[in-house]
Amino acid sequence: MSTPKMIFAMARSPAIDRPGNSKVIDQFSLEDVDVINLDASVLEDKPVALWPMHPRPMLPSRVAIIGNYLPRQCGIATFTTDLCDAIHAEYSATELLALPVNDTPEGYIYPARIRFELAQDEVASYRQAADFLNFSNIDLVCLQHEYGIFGGPAGAHILELLRRLQMPVVTTLHTVLREPNPDQRAVMEEIAVLSDRFIVMSRQSAEILQEVFHVAPSKIDLIPHGIPDLAFTDSNFYKDAFGTEGKEVLLTFGLLSPNKGIENVIQALPAILSRHENVVYMISGVTHPHILRREGDKYRESLQKLAKDLGVEANVIFRNRFVSPQELVELIGAADIYITPYKHKGQVVSGTLAYALSAGKAIISTPYLHAIELLDDERGVLVPFNDPQAIAAKTIELLDNGTARHAMRKRAYLYARDMVWDRVAQQYMGSFERVYNERLRKPRATFSAQNTEKALDRLPTIKLDHLRRMTDNTGIVEHAVFNVPNYPEGYSTDDNARALIVAILLEELGTSSAKGSLDLAARYLAFLWLAFDPATKRFRNCMSYERQWQEPQGSEDSHGRALWGLGTVLGRTLDAGLRGAAGRLFELAVPAAVEFKSPRACAFTLLGLLEYLESFPGDRAALNAADTLANRLLESYIANRSVEWKWFENVLSYSNARLPQALIRAGTRGGNDAMVSAGLEALDWLATVQRCETKGHFVPIGSHGFYSKKTEKARFDQQPIEACATVAAYLQAYRATGKGRWRKEAWTAFNWFLGDNDLQIALYDPTTGGCRDGLHPDRANENQGAESTLSFLMALLEMRTLEEADTTDRKA
């Protein structure tokens, strides 16, 4: 068995903005590898986790479920709690947060899973909840929807939350109306737009969604109401707990409200008792809290009066309590026949019916939608709405015929095995997985992002606040937590080389915003001196905040970037001190780079040499080194190019556009048309690959898997370093050809920073002058690390240089 090849990778800054403060670190040559994800722990000599070239579907790591939650007394609270418990039991690695809706100012005493409480009637609370979820890096939200639990007309307040969410949304519908009123229709139609997927619990619900609300069938998952995995037992085993030994027990349980139709069963009792005098009807459950607050316990009192008037008071047991899960098991277990006498056909979900089915009870029900489905194939019997005589007849029939009743029980019990909570949790996670990975492949902008005005095709003012904040006396700190330097992550040669280039470009631009750029350049140049090992003639890359090097030798790519930074100093600055310090280090470091095989290391070094040659065009050693590296890039392109794959390697990974940029610039300088043509052809192909198929905006190759001849293109995570490299390459092509197409492409790539991207979210932060660390499938990584900020500034300065040149040309 051959040793698997690896490709590259991505260091993730622990415990910051998961899935990570993504940063490409050039630890391996792409010549040696197929794919790799390198965790930040590699810097500490810990094991490295590899990701396969064909990425497997990923499970969301953090899921938030919005819906009522125990100890609030309602069916959705019970459902949400059970769902969370079941998913946690099956997928303990997925962190679950719950956001309940409080219907009273004092709220409830919730368990630790509750992280944010929504005030039902306060619309600001819904906006705050959205901010909390976005801030908390939630991968996916599962909404438990029922019109009555949210504030506003038909529960419209929930839309304020959904519109602002950045992550995918899966909505479980507990009510689906065939004849909604205008408010209900408007709310559901917008939920349909804002939800990535629906979960319904009955086929009828799915049909109504399609017919009434025009939801595509492909967007709907049918997952049954979860039930506990109850044993199939004799009802006599539990009856002593309720004082019903020797009795035949009819049961209805759940929150009491007038639409439950319990009075119809009480009216049926005289006829039932005339045939089976030992029957008792147990009504278990408290009155619905909302009804209790609004009108007191009138409904229960009316039922008690009805039983007394009919002379069956002794045969009706009212259990006015909200039962615990264990008590519920015993309660259902004690029943001989379970009855759901609801009054309305539109009841699409009944948790109590599902629970009775799970215990293998004989069931009598009115024909509401959920009952029609669950009790099909003689798993129960249906009676007309508001028909006590029919209830009496079916009850007597079942009590008379024990054989038929027990056969019905068995059919119900076996059918319900696919509804137990562990299997339901697996189906929910399957739905979550599909949605999460679909968002990876086909991102979409959030409602709020789509409606946010973006300052495209305009260059922002140069703002260096964050650059200075990230820079200390040692150099620039590698990572940030939001916009605060993350000192424990230390420094890197890669970033200090980039920072040196930015500082020199600022000096060259010569605007007032560039004040202090030479001081910054001196710090970054001093870091490169510190990074250089005179014994090996190689740069080290990663250094701790305590100034301890984390490896004896850095990658070829970091060495190449260091030379690029030094060459930029020598080619552009007017400061004699910087030139002198850079010149000596450049001379010491170039020989090692001539032997590099990594195409990126060759490109970075070549860009540095070409900068140097702007000031020292007669340096034969530098000319020879540049020719060697340029030809190496050209040979790599010729060796790997095909009609379908016009590239230098078998994979597109990071800093891709630097390869054609370096080849075009080298060919232009040396008058080598073959190099220029190859570079332009590769860049033209890359432009096609990095363009949204439908909307035309810039889409860089994602670092979460990259793109090879054998694999699909990774959409995320999108990195600022790619946009920066692409802007520079397009501008190089524009200078080489004078064609306006390349200038337009440069603006397209630059606008990615400003919000013209898959999520329509700006990566550049004008309040700090920093740049967010990347674009995830559902949000921007809010950390503003060095690589990202420097990538934006480098792209901005290159675009500024173009603007300055255009202004000069117009004046001329």
Per DSSP, the total helix count is 28
Q: Order of strands across the widest beta sheet? A: 4-3-7-8-9-10
**Overall 3D geometry?**
elongated
The whole-angstrom Rg is 34 Å
Low-confidence stretches: 1-55
User: Structural class of the helix and strand makeup?
Assistant: alpha/beta
What amount of the residues lies in strands? 5-15%
Number of extended strands:
28
Separation of termini?
Answer: 67 Å
Explain what the structure shows.
With 812 residues, this protein is of the alpha/beta class. Helix content is 46%, strand content 11%. The strands form 10 sheets. A 6-stranded parallel beta sheet has the order 4-3-7-8-9-10, sandwiched between helices. A 6-stranded parallel beta sheet has the order 13-12-11-14-15-16, with helices on both faces. A two-stranded antiparallel ribbon has the order 1-2. Strand 8 (169-173), helix 4 and strand 9 (197-200) form a beta-alpha-beta unit. The radius of gyration is 34 Å and the shape is elongated. It starts with 8 loop residues before the first strand and ends with a helix.
